[in-house]
């Protein structure tokens, strides 16, 4: 009975810890890092300092030379100019090195379209800092994080490895986050698109939606 109870408690606290960590990551500061990246044909050193004062998307994926991953990075590449116009920089991150990123970029038609930085995270420090490392595989979950100019995480989207993401929907979330930041006291309702009405929470609004 004691062993069963300990097993139950262990599982309970493990699940609670995961839930608490994912809840706590919203509005938390991104981890400090310095790493090497492959950026549009060049190797560059990129750090968390480079993200200050601008909007950023951190797009984690499991590994280079895989299957769902290139479709996601290509999808983001197809929307990169729109994101840049919104003042957003994109950072793709995996536990592969910047050298492997270059090899993948040179050999894959999909990845060849990528112009945004591809960060190497061989030690896993950045991936662990965002709490999405699969330790047994030394690989990241499909995690996408929208970070504001103050370095605070405003959106955290975590997918199982078999489920691909949509850059188009992330752009919608970027616009919503930027609107809320620039319009104090207003919030964006479900499926909000730029130009649509927002809400101003107040006592008069309670029970009328």
UniProtKB/TrEMBL annotation:
<dbReference type="GO" id="GO:0045454">
    <property type="term" value="P:cell redox homeostasis"/>
</dbReference>
<dbReference type="GO" id="GO:0102039">
    <property type="term" value="F:NADH-dependent peroxiredoxin activity"/>
</dbReference>
<dbReference type="GO" id="GO:0006979">
    <property type="term" value="P:response to oxidative stress"/>
</dbReference>
<feature type="domain" description="Thioredoxin">
    <location>
        <begin position="24"/>
        <end position="179"/>
    </location>
</feature>
<dbReference type="InterPro" id="IPR000866">
    <property type="entry name" value="AhpC/TSA"/>
</dbReference>
<comment type="function">
    <text>Thiol-specific peroxidase that catalyzes the reduction of hydrogen peroxide and organic hydroperoxides to water and alcohols, respectively. Plays a role in cell protection against oxidative stress by detoxifying peroxides.</text>
</comment>
<protein>
    <recommendedName>
        <fullName>Alkyl hydroperoxide reductase C</fullName>
        <ecNumber>1.11.1.26</ecNumber>
    </recommendedName>
</protein>
<keyword id="KW-0963">Cytoplasm</keyword>
<dbReference type="InterPro" id="IPR013766">
    <property type="entry name" value="Thioredoxin_domain"/>
</dbReference>
<dbReference type="InterPro" id="IPR019479">
    <property type="entry name" value="Peroxiredoxin_C"/>
</dbReference>
<dbReference type="GO" id="GO:0008379">
    <property type="term" value="F:thioredoxin peroxidase activity"/>
</dbReference>
<dbReference type="Pfam" id="PF10417">
    <property type="entry name" value="1-cysPrx_C"/>
</dbReference>
<dbReference type="GO" id="GO:0042744">
    <property type="term" value="P:hydrogen peroxide catabolic process"/>
</dbReference>
<comment type="subunit">
    <text>Homodimer; disulfide-linked, upon oxidation. 5 homodimers assemble to form a ring-like decamer.</text>
</comment>
<comment type="similarity">
    <text>Belongs to the peroxiredoxin family. AhpC/Prx1 subfamily.</text>
</comment>
<keyword id="KW-0676">Redox-active center</keyword>
<keyword id="KW-0575">Peroxidase</keyword>
<dbReference type="GO" id="GO:0033554">
    <property type="term" value="P:cellular response to stress"/>
</dbReference>
<dbReference type="GO" id="GO:0005829">
    <property type="term" value="C:cytosol"/>
</dbReference>
<dbReference type="InterPro" id="IPR036249">
    <property type="entry name" value="Thioredoxin-like_sf"/>
</dbReference>
<keyword id="KW-1015">Disulfide bond</keyword>
<dbReference type="InterPro" id="IPR050217">
    <property type="entry name" value="Peroxiredoxin"/>
</dbReference>
<feature type="active site" description="Cysteine sulfenic acid (-SOH) intermediate; for peroxidase activity">
    <location>
        <position position="69"/>
    </location>
</feature>
<dbReference type="Pfam" id="PF00578">
    <property type="entry name" value="AhpC-TSA"/>
</dbReference>
<dbReference type="InterPro" id="IPR017559">
    <property type="entry name" value="AhpC"/>
</dbReference>
<keyword id="KW-0560">Oxidoreductase</keyword>
<dbReference type="InterPro" id="IPR024706">
    <property type="entry name" value="Peroxiredoxin_AhpC-typ"/>
</dbReference>
<keyword id="KW-0049">Antioxidant</keyword>
